[in-house]
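Cross-check.
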Amino acid sequence: MLEAMTDNAITLDEFAALDDEAAVELLLTCCSSPAWARGVAARRPYPSIDALFVAAVDVLAELPEEEIDRALTGHPRIGDRPDNAASAREQAGMTSADDEVRTAIADGNRAYEEKFGHVYLVRASGRTPAELLEILTERLGNDPATERRIVREQLAEINHLRLGHLVKTDAVSTLSTHVLDAVRGTPAVDVSVTLFDAEGGELASAVTDADGRISDLGGELTAGLYRLRFETGEYFEKQGVESFYPEVTVAFTITETRHYHVPILLSPFAYSTYRGS
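Predicted model, tokenized:
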């Protein structure tokens, strides 16, 4: 029964109906800390997926350091062959890594483990191999206390994504965007925009209208990590304008049921973004 549940998301009602042992076993597929799994299971039933997400964060924050170490045992090294379906899904982007990046990440993993005594943990979903290497290099400069805090933050993000795959929800959100040309002071028209899910799968694409807007991209969206890619280089090339960024990618997380507006303010050599309404 558990195998079927890990292959197919269950509803909150089905999750609530599980006996304690089955609920804990299911939650351990998200996080390898028994104390975390027991704590999240004990708070059932959950009235919404958002309530489950909040509980997952709260329980994680209360864990002693030895339970964080147990949680880390469920995460393979970045770049190693994943030993579970969740890690394979999250590290899907590593399939595009070239030999140079793979070698640099392997060397960084060894240096990280020598310094901190545990695996380099990072939310890999939606990140490129180059980004994962850059983050690893930056974090090697941290002191142990800082790094331990970051590990907890990354665990919370990963648990959030895994719970989102584990539990069905009828709650959906919608997405729009708006591109403004800061140099011209006008809307950026005919900018191609593509929406991707956490694993890099393309969900939808469109071009901005005469007002620089796309009012609905991707339809109904559930909680999770997404990326918007704006073809900015193509936009400026059509105008005969030299630009620095061939594309702009904005990663964002949907955590509640609402409309999300993710605009960008664009120039040939800079851009900015924010969460609008």
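The first strand starts at residue 174 and ends at 181. The longest helix spans residues 144-166. Passed to J.P. for a second look.
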